[in-house]
Amino acid sequence: MPTRKNLLALPLLALLLLAFAGCTSLGPPSIARDRFDYTTAVADSWKRQMLLNIVKIRYGDAPIFLDVASIINQYSLETELRGTLGWSEPPSFQRQELGGTGRYYDRPTITYTPLTGEKFARNLMTPVAPATVMSLVEGGYPVDMVFRILVHSVNGVRNQFGGSARMRRADPEFFTLIEKLRQNQNSGTVSLRVKKTEGQNALIMVFRKQTSAETQANAGEVRRILGLKEDADELRVVYGSVASAPDEMALLTRSIIEVLSDISSTIEVPAEHVAEKRVLPTMQPEGEGARGNLIRIQHAKEPPGDAFAAVPYRDGWFWIDDRDYPSKKLFSFLMFVMTLTETGGKDGAPVVTISAGG
Predict the structure, then answer these.
(1) Contacts of 260 (CB under 8 A, 6+ apart)
(2) How many Å apart are CA 133 and CA 77, to the nearest integer?
(3) Contacts of 219 (CB under 8 A, 6+ apart)
(4) Cα(275)–Cα(295) distance, rounded to whole angstroms?
(5) pLDDT of 288-312, one tens digit each?
(6) According to a count of CB atoms within 10 Å of the terminal CB, is the N or C end of the chain lower?
(7) Sheet holding 200-207, edge to edge
(8) CA 270 to CA 167: how far, in whole Å?
(9) Structure confidence by residue, pLDDT tens digits, 141-160
């Protein structure tokens, strides 16, 4: 039988529980959780969207880009605690009642914006600026990888291309050229600077002097392949298919849609799809490294077990193996290049708004 002392303690207990519930905040704990959860979700969906569009281009389908414009999430926690207490003297009747209710709401609102229109199409088809290409090299990306992906030709020396409209093999000296440039890049003897020429800023590639005999030989081979002067230590980088001067390096760069078309040409597809003329045969690489597959995208009937990115398409799965580091690295580089070209329909990065009032 509860005593009067115990009965008097019930209201105090109720007040303490109410005070505790009122002082608990949902806001601060949600920041770390939501920031990383939404970052992971957006990144994974971005990878899958990119992979799906590459696969769709392989099959002659139109790529569609859907941007995450904003993420708004609202949390709400409602608590209610009720208590009644009664007794009489002498105690002939006693009654105690304690009850409560609670409600928790999680209401995410995500806004998607399809990237369409003239501006989007124009930026997909506009060649990447040579200054962007060389800035990637200066930023530490391997010059052979950058040129293999983003450049059609250097002073008329043509790169391999897998796009169906003008599919071709690389000129014999193209891979020698980018290998020599990579060796010079590794030696630290190649740098970029901006020079004022005729009232305009010109991008200059500089071959530094006082280097080893091997590095000098590599630089000489680069000059020979590009048809430059033997003593040309500064090369003016311009856009074009051929150079107009013996100290120019003319880069005929690719557009984003051309980059995606080239990468899609080496996707592994089912033999029956080729036989039924649903897709062109897979373009075989010329060798290893920069000459080989840019990204190895595999096909399977069942969902893969260890995938870096995977998408369902045409009753199967296309995926990049998580243990294939070169493919993962190059795929991530491609996604970074996409951020350097304004594609329209975006005002900035996705805005994440989280209301965590309780």
Answers:
(1) 53, 54, 57, 63
(2) 51
(3) 180, 184, 189, 207, 211
(4) 24
(5) 555 556 789 999 999 998 999 999 9
(6) N
(7) 157-158, 151-154, 248-253, 234-239, 200-207, 190-197
(8) 21
(9) 888 999 999 999 999 999 98
